[in-house]
């Protein structure tokens, strides 16, 4: 029989090897609050302060006692976890509870319909699929209108009430004049055939998305095309629709991208007895997808001017704006939606991660009623979505966040301020090591300078391979028993997303760990950074 170690070697062994190379290959055996426990060589538990927080899934902490007790009760009561295609009152209550919070934060009475899913990427894919369904129906209606107009024009020309002037062909740039053809019906049919051909080619164009540079919206087939990191995205480009990536510091790039892709359909009308070709704009852009604060991309807060311009352009072309709150939402920044803190307004909102309270796997795409296509409910489904267990756990999470008039949000804001102030003092003490501290609430990033000219060959090597941030995380874990991480897309930025239970004492512990690692980097002490000295 194979040993457990050999068996675990079949679950992404290469990744395990990479984690081991920077000392992050630790097995955790127990978790509560802000703490993960591993075992030492003698089998004793060693507590590790967790600032990774399940990639932002643990705003209330690991195994929150009220959530665990509630989940236990639900299972003991044998609630029907899965009873698909029957009434789902719990999902309904959850949608209503989410709406109540959105109503308060957005100051807007328009309801949002909920499409439930299980993971973040699945919620994004449900959202973009809904947006594409909407676009498809819009295009079909437009094509139908254009066909109706052609029929009306045909009738008018047949009755001798209208003629097709030569310049009807000139207006429609790609159309050839029917030289020598004088029969008015024949002239019209030539025109209609060419316009139909043009229109069909335009309608067959693949949809496009608008997305910010450094965005992360998931790694499934559709969502990975909205994730900027080329290593994640490019090998799979052929599988799905593409995005145009926009720099957050250049809001004017949004309009430029839209102008560059503008497409028109040709429609017919009659003016003063003359058949006239008119241009009709049609939607090429399926959706603008935007994180209010980029998480995986290195904690980048969307500048208000960018958010405003995104809203303006979306309104001008009728494109839905999907605000991805999967990481930034659920109170993470001190408001339920981070977008309300940066002045960004969406037509859709996606939530996941902390929605499941650290134990359920659940996510949701919320769609503004005025953009909602109810027919979508009959063409989209997912086995695990809307299950009673996840819905009830998520309701409990909302109850905990909203209790005491939103006391949790105030705690998050206060804890975030305290943590951020401490990070600021470290940056002040080590401006040559720490490049930037940024973020909001309990979604903070500490960016380290790149150090390509380090006098330490070890550090030089780490920098060249994009592993400096991982080595910093490895050092802090090994020497200080604190778990932090950079990301695949922001390798020099440590991302700090602790739970609201973070204590003053833990902030102080992090401070000494950061001061230590900053001193190691300032001293160019490669061996010590890697735990070899
Ligand atoms: N959207 C955002 C903003 C995310 O941060 C993530 C995941 C997803 C979508 C996809 O969610 O993993 O449940 O499918 N972010 C993780 C991270 C992976 O490292 O920040 P998923």
SSE inventory with pairings:
Blueprint: H1 4-8, H2 13-21, E1 28-32, E2 35-39, E3 45-50, H3 53-56, H4 65-76, H5 89-106, E4 112-117, H6 120-158, H7 166-171, H8 184-203, E5 208-212, H9 230-233, E6 242-246, H10 252-261, E7 264-271, E8 274-281, E9 285-290, E10 293-294, E11 300-301, H11 304-317, E12 321-324, E13 348-351, E14 363-368, H12 388-429, E15 434-440, E16 443-448, H13 457-464, H14 468-480, E17 482-483, E18 485-487, E19 490-496, H15 504-522, H16 526-529
Parallel strand pairs: 3-17, 5-6, 5-9, 9-12, 12-13
Antiparallel strand pairs: 1-2, 2-3, 4-14, 7-8, 10-11, 13-14, 15-16, 16-19, 18-19
The protein binds ligand F0G.
Ligand F0G is lined by residues 55, 119-121, 124, 216-218, 291, 295-296, 324, 326-327, 352, 487.
Structure description:
With 533 residues, the chain is an alpha/beta fold. The chain has a domain at 89-392: Aspartate Aminotransferase, domain 2, CATH 3.40.640. The chain is 43% helix and 18% strand. It contains 16 helices and 19 strands. A hairpin with a 2-residue loop joins strand 15 and strand 16 (443-448). Helix 10 (252-261) packs parallel to helix 11 (304-317), helix 12 crosses helix 15 (504-522) and helix 14 (468-480) crosses helix 15. It starts with a helix and ends with a helix.
Keywords:
533 residues, 43% helix, binds ligand F0G
Q: Give me the count of strands.
A: 19
Amino- and carboxy-terminal Cα gap: 40 Å
Query: How much of the residues is beta strand, in percent?
Result: 15-25%
Arrangement of strands in the largest sheet: 4-14-13-12-9-5-6
Mean pLDDT: 95
- Which regions are unreliable across 5 or more consecutive residues at pLDDT < 50? none
Level of helix content? Answer: 40-55%
CATH superfamily placement of one domain: Type I PLP-dependent aspartate aminotransferase-like (Major domain)
Give the class-level CATH name of one domain: Alpha Beta
The oligomeric state is single chain
CATH architectural label of one domain: 3-Layer(aba) Sandwich
- Count every helix, treating DSSP H or I runs of 4 or more residues as helices: 16
């Amino acid at each position: 029989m194979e040993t457990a170690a050999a068996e675990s070697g079949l679950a992404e062994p290469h990744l395990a090897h990479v984690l081991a190379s920077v000392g992050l290959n630790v097995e955790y055996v127990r978790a509560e609050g802000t703490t993960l426990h591993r075992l030492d060589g003698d089998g004793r538990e060693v507590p590790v302060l967790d600032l990774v927080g399940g990639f932002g899934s643990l705003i209330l902490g690991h195994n929150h006692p009220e959530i665990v007790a509630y989940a236990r009760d639900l299972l003991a009561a044998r609630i029907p976890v899965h009873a698909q295609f029957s009434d789902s009152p719990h999902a309904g209550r959850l949608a209503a509870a989410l709406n109540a919070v959105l109503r308060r934060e957005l100051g807007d009475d328009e309801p949002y319909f909920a499409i439930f899913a299980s993971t973040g990427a699945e919620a994004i894919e449900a959202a973009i699929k809904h947006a594409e369904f909407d676009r498809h129906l819009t295009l079909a209606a437009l094509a139908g209108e254009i066909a109706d107009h052609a029929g009306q024009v045909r009738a008018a020309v047949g009755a001798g009430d209208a003629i097709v002037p030569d310049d009807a062909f000139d207006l429609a740039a790609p159309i050839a004049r029917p030289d020598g053809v004088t029969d008015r019906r024949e002239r019209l049919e030539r025109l209609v055939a060419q316009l139909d051909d043009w229109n069909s080619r335009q309608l067959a164009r693949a949809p496009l998305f608008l997305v910010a540079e450094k965005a992360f919206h998931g790694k499934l087939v559709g969502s990975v095309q909205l994730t900027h990191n080329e290593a994640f995205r490019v090998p799979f480009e052929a599988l799905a629709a593409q995005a145009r990536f926009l720099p957050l510091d250049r809001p004017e790039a949004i309009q430029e991208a839209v102008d560059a892709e503008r497409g028109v359909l040709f429609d017919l009308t009659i003016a003063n007895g003359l058949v006239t070709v008119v241009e009709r704009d049609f939607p090429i852009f399926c959706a603008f997808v935007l994180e209010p604060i980029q998480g995986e991309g290195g904690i980048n807060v969307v500048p208000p001017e960018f958010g405003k311009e995104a809203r303006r352009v979306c309104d001008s072309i009728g494109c839905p704006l999907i605000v991805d709150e999967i990481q930034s939402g659920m109170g993470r920044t001190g408001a339920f939606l981070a977008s309300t803190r940066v002045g960004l307004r969406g037509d859709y909102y996606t939530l996941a991660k902390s929605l499941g309270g650290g134990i359920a796997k659940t996510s949701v795409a919320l769609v503004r009623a005025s953009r909602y296509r109810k027919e979508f409910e009959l063409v989209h489904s997912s086995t695990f979505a809307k299950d009673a267990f996840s819905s009830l756990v998520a309701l409990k999470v909302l109850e905990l966040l909203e209790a005491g008039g939103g006391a949790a949000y105030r705690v998050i804001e206060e804890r975030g301020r305290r943590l951020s102030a401490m990070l600021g003092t470290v940056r002040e003490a080590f401006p040559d090591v720490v490049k930037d501290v940024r973020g909001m609430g309990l979604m903070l990033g500490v960016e380290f300078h790149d150090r390509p000219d380090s006098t330490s060959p070890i550090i030089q090597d780490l920098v060249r391979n994009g592993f400096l941030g991982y080595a910093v995380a490895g050092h802090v874990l090994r020497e200080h028993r604190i778990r932090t991480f950079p990301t695949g897309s922001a390798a020099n930025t440590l991302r700090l997303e602790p739970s609201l239970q973070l204590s003053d004492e833990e902030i102080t512990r992090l401070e000494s760990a950061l001061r230590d690692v900053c001193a190691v980097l300032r001293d160019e002490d490669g061996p010590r950074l890697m735990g070899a000295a």
